[in-house]
Specification:
Rossmann fold; eight-stranded mixed sheet; 12 helices; globular
């Protein structure tokens, strides 16, 4: 089995032992092709998520960025326990989410909420917004009767700027815009005052004109309810705006992590530099030298043993193909997995 990062999940735990959410050495591997047998690490596996360790505090928004196919959405589903990790675990307030969901699945679903990318696929088209919003309240025993539940969801819609709430509650999903539906998705998730929220590309399907509105809404609600949030996106500008810290993901692994502005202004990993250099700046006077790389990301089928980015990296040397790089703290908790730091 390939070498793992020098900064292991035990070391991450030591550095973040007070974090509310701790993701420890989480991997999600899928058997290649028709191989459905019991896990055998000598076989070929698609490593969608590979040895990810992160932490998030209450009231903090952690952005996870990377190209399509890098494993961001798979990580989100694992965190919400919609998929089980092959290895590793997730802890909320020092308790394994596996234990939380085994002890009380409904309580876990109130504690952890996920907001999906496409609001048009989120809701059953045959149900009215009132039915969509009140059903989870009934399931979880919130509100003594229909009238109380109606008042709860009406107040929630109005708090999200959806007026007139009475009219919207009578409508069906196809009668609303994508922006309205995504606001309702977020408001429905917040009905339970969740302490951990996973937002998986929540604005990528929306018009640019409503993206900022949705982002501000999510940011406001997370801070007001003191929730830990993981914001998954390929949009660097949006991630920079909403996130306190940013993790950069490539082919299932975290290659760089740090404070949001530090990652954007002072990227260290070659892959992060490529992403930032190809992101349009809001400053028309700023001159950015685009870094071009060749080819597509390599296959996630048993990548390595060297750095996964090496086949596309403009700084790669022979050693980069032999072992996965150690993770180095370049200062202030800015972590980088690259052996070519400060080298041409």
């Amino acid at each position: 089995m390939e070498d793992i990062l020098v900064v292991t999940y035990m070391e991450v735990e030591r550095m973040n032992n007070n974090a509310y959410v701790q993701i420890k050495n989480v991997s999600r591997w899928y058997p290649h092709k028709s191989d459905k047998k019991i896990i055998d690490f000598n076989k070929k596996w698609i490593k969608a998520v590979d040895q990810v360790s992160l932490s998030v505090n209450k009231g903090e928004i952690l952005g996870v960025i990377g190209e399509s196919g890098c494993g961001k959405s798979t990580l989100g589903r694992i965190l919400a326990r919609l998929e089980e990790p092959t290895k590793g675990d997730i802890f909320i307030n020092q308790t394994s989410t596996q234990k939380l969901i085994e002890d009380d699945p409904r309580k876990f679903r109130r504690l952890v909420q996920i907001i999906f990318q496409n609001p048009f696929d989120t809701f059953t088209p045959r149900d009215t917004i009132l039915e969509i919003m009140t059903r989870p309240l009934k399931i979880h025993g919130i509100g003594n009767n229909k009238g109380e539940r109606y008042d709860i969801v009406k107040k929630e819609l109005e708090s999200g700027g959806l007026y007139p709430a009475e009219d919207i509650l009578r409508r069906y999903p196809h009668e609303l815009s994508g922006g309205q539906l995504q606001r309702i998705s977020i408001l429905r998730a917040m009905l339970f005052d969740p302490e951990f929220i996973i937002a998986d590309e929540p604005v990528s399907m929306l018009d640019v004109s409503v993206r900022a509105e949705i982002i501000n809404m999510l940011k406001k609600l997370s801070k007001e309810q003191d929730s830990a949030v993981i914001f998954i996106s390929h949009d660097i500008a949006l991630t920079r705006y909403i996130s306190d810290n940013i993790a950069v993901m490539y082919l299932g692994r975290i290659v760089e992590y740090g404070q949001g502005d530090e990652i954007i202004k002072n990227p260290q990993h070659p892959y992060t530099k490529v992403l930032i250099s190809n992101c349009p700046s809001i400053d028309p006077e700023e001159k950015i030298m685009n870094i071009k790389i060749e080819g597509e990301p390599p296959t996630p089928i048993d990548p390595g043993p060297g750095c996964y980015f090496a086949p596309r990296c403009y700084k790669a040397v022979d050693e980069c193909y032999k072992k996965y790089p150690a993770t180095e703290d370049v200062g202030g908790g800015h972590l980088v997995a690259c052996d070519r730091l400060n080298k041409k």
